[in-house]
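User: These chains co-purify. Model them together.
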Amino acid sequence: MQFNLNLSSDMLRRTPAALASLLESTAEAWARGTEGPETFSPFDVVGHLIDGEETDWIPRARIILARGKEPRFEPYDRFRHRARNADRSLSSLLAEFARLRAANLELLRSWRLTGAELDLAGIHPSLGRVTLRQLLAAWVVHDLGHLAQVARVMAKQYREQVGPWVPYLPVLTDHDVPRS
Amino acid sequence: MQFNLNLSSDMLRRTPAALASLLESTAEAWARGTEGPETFSPFDVVGHLIDGEETDWIPRARIILARGKEPRFEPYDRFRHRARNADRSLSSLLAEFARLRAANLELLRSWRLTGAELDLAGIHPSLGRVTLRQLLAAWVVHDLGHLAQVARVMAKQYREQVGPWVPYLPVLTDHDVPRS
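Assistant: Joint model of the two components:
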């Protein structure tokens, strides 16, 4: 599949509703369950996605589009959300994520990016040179990866309840060692 | 997390909306992409979930609740959907799944299952004795596993587009060998 800006925006638009359909008013055990120490709960994932809206994807696109001499990205803090959201409800985070995402997509649309602009590059702190096209594709994949994570982490909360079904339900044994 | 009938029903109720938010009117490349030969596309997953509504979870619950001498489940055909849905649109499958699921949850609710009924067992063709409680928990986990699969399979369609980001996006290398 080739990169397509409209399809990428369309997919990014879907994520808040997909998360809300799974998580709005769900039980605490599902919202706060994890896959083990130092892994994200669904609550953490929504916070992490908010961090992405505020500090990662669009800020990095701006750095690229500014066409400076040294378009180096700020390092990204994967745990910013922990302190930020300590007293927040999941419902308020879902609403905030939807709001931030809609505004960022509106901004992205307003840029009317050309193919030449999508070819511009920035410098990732550890990955090196990445193009704006790759950044936007990574934003889409990052969303989908965290959606898969939310479903997987929720599934695992019921691992002890399915009895002999475990080998037929591979989601229960995916990421037995944390991968993200 | 303990098994909870109301929470299980609540989660099962969410799946059609979660799938629709990701898949309604999405591009063919995302709807029909797979992880390789003999793996499911998102289109296939919706068909497989419809098969589950028609031939798996509720029919098996009925066999258990009938309290017969030999409550043996029919084997489940994982590929029934292929011929069944050859000429269908994804949109019509999403609507059909939502309709079937709502009817099955209404039926489940109407049974007003007691703890003693949830302890009743049936005989799975390969797993042996399983309780109604385990069957209902497996239904929930099966949904979440296939939701995770849909997100993962969609993510993988963009694998070539993210450039050097692959190692930071583990969803792209999950299930490199098919697990389901």
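The first strand of chain B starts at residue 121 and ends at 124.
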